[in-house]
Amino acid sequence: MDTSSLIIAIISAVVYSLSMYVKKHLNPNNPQNFDTVKFITTVIWGVLIGGFLAISGLPVTEMSVEEQFLAYAGLIAITENIVKSILRALTRNQSEDSDTTNQ
């Protein structure tokens, strides 16, 4: 198993997570504090993506490390947002169902 995919994915997740924190922290209308749970969740997501890519045997290609890093960061961001959207939709549907039964 080639661990370079795993390492690049973890670094991508850390950088992506920190960049999101800085963006939200510097928002003048609603600055947010560092959220350890969000950070760890994103890093774990990066570990899962990197682990999947490493186990599947997809090697780090001739692309430069920078290109591979950006590709993994994009993959982490897109898949994380898709999963979050699905979970939010499911949570919203459950809360609407319980509101309906309580009326």
The best one-word shape is flat
**How many structural units, i.e. domains?**
1
Over all CA atoms, what is the radius of gyration? Answer: 17 Å
Distance between the termini: 56 Å
Give the helix level as a range of percent.
over 70%
| Low-pLDDT windows of residues | none
Quickly count the helices: 3
* Category by helix and strand content: mainly alpha
Order of helices and strands: HHH
The portion of residues forming beta strands comes to: under 5%
Largest sheet: none
Count of individual beta strands:
0
Query: What integer is the average pLDDT?
Result: 81
Walk me through this protein's architecture:
The protein is mainly α. The protein has one domain (4-102). It is built from 3 helices and no strands. It has helices at residues 4-25, 36-55, 65-102. The protein starts with a helix and ends with a helix.
What is this structure, in a nutshell?
The chain is mainly alpha-helical and 103 residues long. 78% of the residues lie in helices and 0% in strands. The radius of gyration is 17 Å and the shape is flat.
